[in-house]
Description:
Layout: E1 2-11, E2 14-24, E3 29-33, H1 40-47, E4 55-60, E5 63-64, H2 70-75, E6 78-81, H3 93-100, H4 107-120, H5 122-126, H6 137-149, E7 155-159, H7 167-182, E8 186-190, H8 194-200, E9 203-208, E10 211-216, H9 218-222, H10 225-231
Parallel strand pairs: 3-8, 3-9, 6-7, 7-8
Antiparallel strand pairs: 1-2, 1-4, 4-5, 9-10
Amino acid sequence: xxxxxxxxxxxxxxxxxxxxxxxxxxxxxxxxxxxxxxxxxxxxxxxxxxxxxxxxxxxxxxxxxxxxxxxxxxxxxxxxxxxxxxxxxxxxxxxxxxxxxxxxxxxxxxxxxxxxxxxxxxxxxxxxxxxxxxxxxxxxxxxxxxxxxxxxxxxxxxxxxxxxxxxxxxxxxxxxxxxxxxxxxxxxxxxxxxxxxxxxxxxxxxxxxxxxxxxxxxxxxxxxxxxxxxxxxxx
Length: 235
């Protein structure tokens, strides 16, 4: 289980996160809804140690990981797939995947994870020797997710996985997120497509200007008038 307790983060003089309390239970899909600039990506970056918190506590599997090095956090099974994919365009699909397993020393596990990725993403298997930079936007996002899975994450954090994708491709990405969760990986999801995110979320939080303003099951928030008006374009 991941928990944030009174987490605060500053960017210069900006109080980007203001006393965030959040829990991600094992086996669940938890989503964070909010406008651009609300602090969603800052929260993910602070969890994995890219951004240092000013105060508060981050607990992962009963261990305090506040302030720990990113490499150690990733090695503990907590993996972030950042916004923008950040694949290596001049490397092949297969080379990108193998780089995702850089902390894994067991060759059998690497091969097992690789085959599981190709089962989840058949397109990547078809293009395994193709340079990643020549893939479509949807295929690059699939590769970014698959590369994250190569490290055997217990909790996978995804930052805007459907950004810039066509609706059909976006739907495919959400279907795959469901499958990954069904296979036993906990998910923390940030997504501008609030409707799609809430539809698959077991639990959800609304983040506004660095503060959690609402939380409930995905189904309840999906039908909340305030959420529908602010994030679903209704009312």
